[in-house]
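2024-03-11 09:14:02 INFO receiving multi-entity request
2024-03-11 09:14:02 INFO entity count = four
2024-03-11 09:14:03 INFO echoing inputs for audit
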Amino acid sequence: MFEKYNKVQRAVLETTLNIIIRKELQATSMALIAKESGVSTGNIYHYFQSKEDIVNELYKAIVTFNGEYVREGLLQGRTIREKFELGWNRVVELGEKYPQGFQFIEQYSFSPYIYDEVKQAVYTDGWCGPMDKLYEEAIQQKLFIPMNPKLMVQMHYGTLVYILKAHLQGIFELTSDSVHEVIRSCWKAVQLADDTVQLNGTIG
Amino acid sequence: MFEKYNKVQRAVLETTLNIIIRKELQATSMALIAKESGVSTGNIYHYFQSKEDIVNELYKAIVTFNGEYVREGLLQGRTIREKFELGWNRVVELGEKYPQGFQFIEQYSFSPYIYDEVKQAVYTDGWCGPMDKLYEEAIQQKLFIPMNPKLMVQMHYGTLVYILKAHLQGIFELTSDSVHEVIRSCWKAVQLADDTVQLNGTIG
DNA sequence: CACCATAAATCGAACGTTCATTCTAATTTA
DNA sequence: TAAATTAGAATGAACGTTCGATTTATGGTG
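2024-03-11 09:21:47 INFO inference complete, emitting structure
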């Protein structure tokens, strides 16, 4: 997750993420980060400008990592339908494999603590852009209903975020089957009606 | 929103909500709450046990308010389909009319700062319980596919939360038409296939 | 209605603690 | 031996909370 950073920076970023999720930004003091990461406060300030800087760097790193991971999935699909399924599957995988990163982005994407320029990274380094494009194509090819593609992507992302949230809170289990079913129902939600009829039979 | 509280409590809760959304919990000091609410710190502690207490009371009040508002919508519908549309419409209305309350719940529903007992309020005083029941009925009546109703409710709530979030961040506009279209597509996502066929014609 | 005694509400200065950050000295590395 | 790295005590500001004083409301008595 933090490959491009050195040992000290990585320890600091990992520890910070850990504490923020466990205890809340408010309770994440530099003294605690120093203690748990094994890096002295003085040394932390040698690699980071401030506490704000650490948290924003953390945000940027996670968004970039997530972006690469999902885009890789999108690339692997050949048809639009395949890209759709592989892409969203990767989003769910991220939530399951890296729950702290997922929770962190969810909790702080709205926070004033994260600089606006850093939030923009979602579109430049994340997966939103490529996903928007995929939806535009799907509309052009009459697979999806004519709707604002950005709105559709948000809808589907929200769907997955919330089943992940509920899953992480232990409200229900998530099997690969149920995830698949959810993703299929996302497709169904926005597919052009003609599609369904072609699948089920001919009009009277 | 804070009808059951007295003047001072209301001023404190409203101010706190305001500052938290504007500046972040971390930057919400008692001194600032006192200054902006016009209530001295000493007097705040006459009505609240601690800062934590204020924030948790705020959370509880908003969840209860939202719960009442959505349940009222659910009651007004006669058919399942009507309840579905009116209920979710109210959720969107809440996000539009009371964006601060909406954002606050979104941002802190995962936070360790909110006591677990207070989080439970979503099910006891909120609208999740009644909505779950509606979905169970819809499954029994073969309107919806056989899927975990809790999972379905989370899916649809996530859908609406994310179009609201994007809307509040100014990514796109939300008309009552587009909201209606989104809610209809939520229904479509989980409706039993037979339904569609009956609408479109007979199977060849 | 005036008076006073008691209680409730309100205030803001003061307290002790904790915080982010700095600084200087020590240590390691090249 | 010079530069880069690391350490942790020191600093001053800011924090949540407390407390004694002051104001306002209440209700019984002459």
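2024-03-11 09:21:48 INFO post-check: Chain A touches chain B through 47 residues (CB under 8 Å).
2024-03-11 09:21:48 INFO post-check: Chain A has a mean pLDDT of 92.
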